[in-house]
Design brief:
Length: 373
């Protein structure tokens, strides 16, 4: 198969197609894929790309990895092959590689080259199921942070009693000061508008209580800044752990240590209740008969809480769109991660982040002038 050079994606113009023989290549939105990242790569990556192509017919792929392995898999999907360009490399970042080693030694890896494609303007976003620490380290080094942001944050969205919410940080920053938390709040608000489609997202700071005097100095200081910000955001104050599944707010802000524990606890509880249900409905003949009557309702519940549906954590604050897929996901989950990258690119996530931080900076300057006068 002859590789086709894909055009750089324009920012907002209508879809155009290049007709190359029997191949039609979209030049509107190009997604870079780390084809070798993840527990089940490259098969899951290719199958996920095919599912995403069906959902988003105006996207194209730059696929980085061992071409002799990935090209035959892609050729099984002719329509996917028509919108895919291969970039061959034999170097792979493993799950055991330390971020510092991957940053220094994996310059020709599929992960690094896929991130480079975003930096060079060849792709609008990058999706990888590889090593999270390495992905963060390489992406931060290559793409740098956006103006006004000192630390990137990891976020994802999850089901709640009210719909869907997001939380950040989920592990990139174990310790955070008030400025970091304020930055996370701004990024999370833009993410909720861009990806979740919420017009006016509400924001809450995760704390040990809702009273004004509770919590660390950093959390209380961040709350004071958010209450006085000139940005048009809906800050609701402090929220507690039980507000996470309740969906009390659309964006929950916390440090990476707390956020990661909250996320892993929620995942563990989901598995626990799933195992309890299986035991309950297999415990007796009457229970098995009862299962037949409510099987459809349980299937609906399973679909709503399916972790594949919410696969795709975002590395926010970078000067480029980076999506981290769960390493053990299947093709459906990986396709959803690609979908997150598509949504963020199509809705101008980076430009909106820049606008909000510029307004935040201007507001802080005006507050300082007012305080001096």
């Amino acid at each position: 198969m002859t590789a086709v050079r894909l055009s750089k994606p324009p920012q907002s113009d209508p879809i155009h197609f290049l007709h190359l023989g029997d191949r039609i290549v979209s030049d509107r939105l190009v997604i870079a894929l780390d084809a070798m990242g993840g527990d089940k790569a490259p098969e899951v990556v290719i199958d996920g790309a095919e599912i995403a192509r069906e959902r988003f017919p105006d996207i194209s792929f730059l696929m980085f990895g061992e071409q002799p392995r990935i090209e035959p898999l892609v050729e099984k999907h002719p329509k996917l092959a028509a919108v895919t360009e291969f970039r061959h490399t034999t170097q792979v970042v493993s799950g055991e590689d330390k971020p510092s080693i991957a940053l220094r030694s994996a310059r020709e890896s599929s992960m690094r080259l896929a991130i480079n494609a975003v930096c060079d303007g060849e792709a609008s976003s990058v999706v990888s199921a590889g090593n999270t620490g390495a992905l963060m380290a390489i992406a931060k080094f290559v793409l740098k942070t956006l103006p006004g942001i000192t630390r990137p944050a990891i976020t994802t969205y999850y089901p709640t009693m009210r719909g869907e919410s997001c939380m950040l940080d989920l592990g990139a920053n174990v310790q955070c000061d008030a400025e970091n938390l304020v930055q996370f709040a701004v990024m999370g608000e833009v993410f909720a508008r861009t990806v979740l489609g919420i017009d006016k997202p509400t924001i809450g700071l995760l704390n040990v209580g809702v009273e004004a005097l509770k919590g660390s100095d950093e959390v209380r200081e961040a709350a004071a800044i958010l209450k006085e910000t000139s940005l048009p955001i809906e800050f609701m104050g402090f929220v507690e752990g039980d507000d996470i599944p309740a969906g009390t707010v659309d964006v929950i802000v916390t440090d990476g240590f707390t956020g990661n524990i909250a996320l892993k606890t929620a995942e563990g509880m989901t598995k626990l209740y799933t195992s309890f249900l299986k035991e309950a409905f297999s415990s007796s003949l009457s229970a098995k008969i009862g299962y037949l009557f409510i099987r459809r309702a349980l299937n609906n519940l399973r679909q709503r809480t399916d972790p594949r549906r919410y696969n795709g954590a975002m590395l926010l604050g970078l000067n480029g769109i980076v999506v981290k897929s769960h390493g053990g996901t299947d093709s459906v989950g990986f396709a959803n991660a690609i979908g997150v990258g598509v949504d963020m690119a199509q809705h101008g996530f980076i430009s909106k982040i820049k606008q909000d931080f510029e307004r935040l900076k201007d507001g802080q300057i005006e507050q300082k002038k007012a305080a001096v006068s």
